[in-house]
Every structure is written in structure tokens, then in C-alpha cells.
Design goal:
Length: about 500
């Protein structure tokens, strides 16, 4: 009998939502002070100016530009230049580094909000104002109304919540004048691990690695694929492909490893660690690193302090957050929490963002694909109806990756499982240190949204599969990650069904 989804959908996590209209500003512009990290520690704006980065070069890295934030006169001039040359190659504006600075000052570079740090009422990064990072950097694209670069960057009106699959985060970081300040989220070689390294690169970085060494790692697409971001401060090179942030009421638990149950707690961890990694040198940050990695976690914190001193980084940490009564809990992994009202407002906005319409597909093929999706066992993990929340269980690694044969790299105190790794696979690297055992769950994968799949260029969180056709092809083998296969017309039909999925019941 065909099934519409797993019989046990898992527990639904309660969520409190604030004001969605205020949440939009949080999503687009809120930094909670992290502009200090990106401007004074990583020195991304300084690196861009020193390199003479043009808007065309920014767009080539997948960065999105908000047309509505550009003043009317500049818009008119830009459109005239693009009408004369739609490729943008001869556009004076798009090939002038001064335009990049002007776009930053206009808050037109999406996800890089500028703040009036010197409080003179004007936005000017050249006169002391600082540039931070917001959720929109990875989770907004534009409609390309004015221009779309072949590499994926575009100029147009914001489409919040969509994953930016073309964002070259590694190359963006490499432009910074002090990429060494990103040490906790690089692939490292630690003394506590006897110099061994885990990740895509054959060797790891150390506290003595030069800026050139770090930039070479970040710029290497084999080590840091386009469309991905290393979001775990564990010293592993475990970049994860960018995910959407629309309809987050359907998406719990959060993180591909399912470590966090509540949406606002997920956002708080992002703001208090990833958007300002110097927070990891605080008492709460060190406690979390020690819990996750023991001596290796302690070493990361100690080495990071040395790097910050060597590169003359001062005044950290930068993010403004309050002490929390339950340090180390999911509510405050680092013992602090940013403005809770704004976190709840962000909840409301992320819930309100509609999922895109499914692709236009052959109705007959999609209908057959729907039947196959149910009868072939796909509904053991996934729902047919994408207007339902995804099943909230974490799928054990042995189920999602039969070839998982991990060795123990380090013991850990329960409920955390030991640090485990399967050699010659990038799929389990993300779950080696940071995984759902933090909350007593299994090491494995949380269920993804099966939405906006037509735009998705790669599959599985580690970018290891290049298409839906490859994902469902038995040539990948019985022990590969996600080894659930279909042949011939059945595979073609299911792909048609998946590409047409949306939350309107199609």
C-alpha cells in the first residue's frame, strides 16, 4: 500500500514568533555588533579596497546586489550601460572599484550591512563606518531584474529565503586582509590530534600558517566548494552546502546534523559564534569548545588567541549579547544570548517567507513519479506533501550511509558520542564533532526540505552528487551515502515529481 510519509513524524517543537515585519530587518540588516569582527578582525572591507575589487568581480563570486538600494541617478546610468552591453563587460560602473565602495556605503551589497559606527549620520566605510554580516548573505538572491552574471551574482530586487547556490564564500574570505582571523572554521592540524587533519585538504593549517596559506586553502574549490560554508568551529574542513531559509516552520530540527531543536536557538548560535568567532575565546566559548573537542577544543581557543594577538586584533569579542541563566544549554551554547525579541521576530519572518513555486513539469510523468515515490519506499523518510513539516527525527548514519565504517578519533563524555570518522568520505565529516548527540540524539542526518529543487545544482550536504539523476542512479553503489535508487522511467518520473514540488500540494 502506498504511503504518504513516515508513520512516526517525530515530535513537533514549540515555537514562539514575534513580528515578521521587524524580523525582515533583522534578517537583512541585524549584526548585533559583528561588524567589528568582519571589519576589524577579518578586515574584509580593507581587503576589498586593497585588491581594487570591482562590482563585476563581486558578482563573479555570487554576491547579490539590491537594485532598490541604489540611488536613482546611478540606476539610470547603470541601465543605460547594460542596454549598450548586456554582458556588462564594458560597463564603466560595473568595472570601477569605486562603485563597489559606493554600493557598500549604500547598503546595496546584500548580506554585508554597513553601520554608522562613527555616528556622524552618514554611511562611509572609508571614514570609520564598519561592515558586518547578516543572514541575507547566504539566504537571499535577487530576481536579476537589472543584471545576472554567468557565475551567479545578480542585481535586482531581493528574494529573501532562497539559498544562494553560487556564493563563493571561500574566495570571498580569501579577499579579506586578515583571513587568519577565521581560524576556528578552517581545516586544522592540531597537536592534540597528533597532527592529523580531517577534511577535504590533504594537510591542515596551524596557528603559524601564513595569510597566503589560509587564502590558498579558502580559494581552492576542491577544499571549499562554491555554494558551501564551513559552519562548524571544530577544526575540521567540513563545508556544507547552503540551504534555504523560507518556511522554517516546516524545517525542524535545525542544521544538517539536527543538533538544535528550536529555530531561535539556531539563530542565536549563528550570531554568537559564527558571525563573531572571537566569542569562542570567552569563558562560555572555551567551555563549548572543550565539551565538543576536549584537548583539541582547548587548543583551538589557545591558538586563536595567539593569532588574534599576532595580527593585532583588539577589542574583541564584538557581538552584543547578555548572559543567560542556562549556559551550555541549547538556548545559550556559549552562555550568552542576543536580543530575544529580535530572535523571535526573525522566527516570524523566516516562517512567513513563502516557498517558491515548483518547476513547470510534465503532469503525467510527475503523477507517475508521485506513485513511485510512495511505493518505492521514499516515504520511509520523506513526506509526499511538502506543506507538512519534515519528519523531525535524525536518520542514523548507518541508515543514510551504509558504507560508514568510522574509526574513533577521540572519546567524549556522554551523551556525546565519540569523535568518529570514516576515511575517504566527506559525507560524515560534518557529523564527526558537531552532531545531534549533543542533545542525546543519534549521529546522523536531519531531513531536508524537498523544495526549490530545480535551482539546486548539487545534492547531499557535502556537494558530493551533481544532479538528481546521479543521486538516484545505482551506479553510485550500495554503500554510498543515500543509496536509494531507481532505474529507467521510474527514475525520470520521480525526478519530474521532485522538481515540481511546492507547498501548494503539487
Amino acid at each position: 500500500m502506498a504511503s504518504d510519509g513516515p508513520a512516526n513524524q517525530g515530535p513537533e517543537s514549540p515555537r514562539v514568533d514575534g513580528d515578521a515585519s521587524t524580523g525582515r530587518d533583522v534578517f537583512r540588516n541585524e549584526t548585533f555588533g559583528n561588524e567589528g569582527f568582519w571589519t576589524d578582525a577579518v578586515r574584509l572591507p580593507a581587503g576589498m579596497v586593497a585588491a581594487g575589487v570591482t562590482p563585476m568581480q563581486v558578482l563573479a563570486l555570487g554576491v547579490q546586489i539590491d537594485l532598490d538600494a541604489i540611488d536613482a541617478a546611478t540606476q539610470t546610468m547603470l541601465m543605460e550601460q547594460l542596454r549598450a552591453d548586456p554582458s556588462g563587460r564594458t560597463s564603466a560602473l560595473l568595472n570601477d572599484p569605486k562603485t563597489t565602495v559606493a554600493l557598500v556605503n549604500a547598503n546595496a551589497v546584500i548580506g554585508m550591512p554597513i553601520k554608522d559606527s562613527n555616528r556622524d549620520g552618514r554611511m562611509d566605510a572609508g571614514k570609520g563606518d564598519k561592515v558586518g554580516a547578516s543572514c541575507a548573505l547566504c539566504h537571499t538572491v535577487t530576481d536579476g531584474a537589472a543584471f545576472t552574471h554567468p557565475a551567479g551574482g545578480s542585481i535586482g530586487r531581493r528574494r529573501d529565503g532562497l539559498a544562494n547556490h553560487k556564493l563563493d564564500m571561500g574566495a570571498i574570505f580569501a579577499v579579506a586582509a586578515n583571513s587568519r582571523a577565521l581560524y576556528p572554521v578552517l581545516q586544522l592540524s592540531l597537536t592534540a590530534n597528533k597532527g592529523k587533519t580531517l577534511g577535504r585538504a590533504p594537510t591542515g593549517l596551524t596557528e603559524t600558517s601564513t595569510e597566503a596559506d589560509v587564502d590558498a586553502y579558502l580559494s581552492n574549490k576542491q577544499f571549499y566548494p562554491v555554494g558551501s560554508f564551513d559552519d562548524t568551529f571544530d577544526g575540521n574542513g567540513d563545508t556544507m552546502h547552503n540551504t534555504p531559509l523560507f518556511r522554517q516552520d516546516l524545517a525542524a530540527p535545525y542544521g544538517s546534523e539536527g543538533m538544535i531543536v528550536k529555530l531561535d536557538n539556531f539563530s542565536n548560535l549563528v550570531y554568537t559564534s559564527l558571525f563573531d568567532q572571537t566569542m569562542l575565546t570567552t569563558k562560555g566559548g572555551r567551555a563549548l569548545l572543550h565539551t565538543l573537542g576536549g584537548a583539541a577544543g582547548d587548543e583551538i581557543a589557545d591558538d586563536y588567541v595567539k593569532i588574534l594577538k599576532a595580527t593585532n586584533v583588539k577589542g574583541y569579542p564584538y557581538v552584543k549579547a547578555s548572559k543567560h541563566p542556562k549556559p551550555g544549554s541549547e538556548d545559550a551554547f556559549l552562555g550568552v544570548r542576543v536580543d530575544n525579541t529580535k530572535l523571535l521576530d526573525l522566527n516570524a519572518y523566516l516562517v512567513s517567507l513563502a516557498a517558491p513555486q515548483g518547476a513547470q513539469v510534465d503532469a503525467g510523468k510527475a503523477a507517475r513519479g508521485r506513485e513511485t515515490f510512495s511505493s518505492a519506499g521514499c516515504t520511509g523518510c520523506h513526506n509526499v506533501d511538502q506543506s507538512r513539516r519534515v519528519p523531525s527525527f535524525v536518520l542514523p548514519m548507518a541508515r543514510i550511509f551504509p558504507g560508514d565504517a568510522p574509526v574513533t578519533l577521540a572519546p567524549r563524555m556522554p551523551p556525546l558520542n565519540p569523535v568518529l570518522n570514516t576515511a575517504d568520505s566527506t559525507f560524515d565529516d560534518k557529523m564527526a564533532v558537531v552532531n545531534a548527540s549533543v542533545r542525546g540524539e543519534v549521529r546522523g542526518n536531519a531531513m531536508p526540505l524537498l523544495l526549490d529543487l530545480e535551482r539546486k545544482p548539487v545534492f547531499l550536504h557535502d556537494d558530493s552528487v551533481n544532479s538528481l539523476d546521479d543521486l538516484l542512479d545505482s551506479k553510485r553503489g550500495a554503500t554510498a551515502p543515500h543509496p536509494f535508487y531507481l532505474a529507467g522511467r521510474q527514475r525520470s518520473d520521480v525526478i519530474e515529481f521532485l522538481k515540481g514540488l511546492d507547498t501548494d500540494g503539487r
